[in-house]
Amino acid sequence: MAACTKCGANLNPGATFCGSCGAPVAAAGTVAPAPSTGGSAPTPTSTSTGTPMASNVAGLLTYVLGLITGIIFLVIEPYNKDKFVRFHAFQSIFLNVAWIVIWIAFNIVGAILSHISFGLFGLVMLLVDMCLGLGFFLLWLFLMFKAYNNEKFKLPIIGNIAEQQAG
Q1: Which of 35, 40, 79 shows the shortest CA–CA distance to 61?
Q2: Which residues pair with 37 in a beta bridge?
Q3: What is the pTM of this model?
Q4: How far apart are the first and last CA of the chain?
Q5: Residue 34: which of 21, 48, 47 has the closest Cα?
Q6: d(CA 159, CA 90)
Q7: pLDDT tens track of the chain, all 167 residues?
Q8: Cα–Cα distance, 143 to 125 (Å, whole number)
Q9: What DSSP assignment string belongs to 96-144?
């Protein structure tokens, strides 16, 4: 295995840059001389290897923007065939749709009850809304963590539907 001449770290086969220090690697496994552009960071000339990202990273990314990234990963070619990525994409989509429906219903009920109680119930609704928002945010982070660790955490109702849709 070749080693980087700048930092001494082991290089992966076919690597064009050192994974530790970022120095460009020459064909023989040695570090190519840095460009003399006044100390700027080296820019890769061709880093496209044509290999897709790992399933766990794609599964994590399906949750990042909810509906949008879930749909994107269901459409993108190498990931729409991966059951792990498809499961997390569907779960992300269904979770966000459920959250939007719950949020709308909660706000309608809250507005009606706040109007009836002359605004007193509005303070309670504000606290409950903040707790629900924090809970959803923590669930979102937890699902991204589980996807990154190659774990298939199924939410009670949504997870079963997502698993059926993923195949």
Answers
A1: 79
A2: none
A3: 0.64
A4: 41
A5: 21
A6: 9
A7: 678 888 888 877 777 777 777 777 765 444 444 444 555 554 444 445 556 788 888 888 989 988 898 898 888 888 888 888 889 999 999 999 999 999 999 989 888 888 888 877 878 888 888 999 999 999 999 999 998 998 888 889 988 898 888 88
A8: 26
A9: HHHHHHHHHHHHHHHHHHHHHTTTHHHHHHHHHHHHHHHHHHHHHHHHH
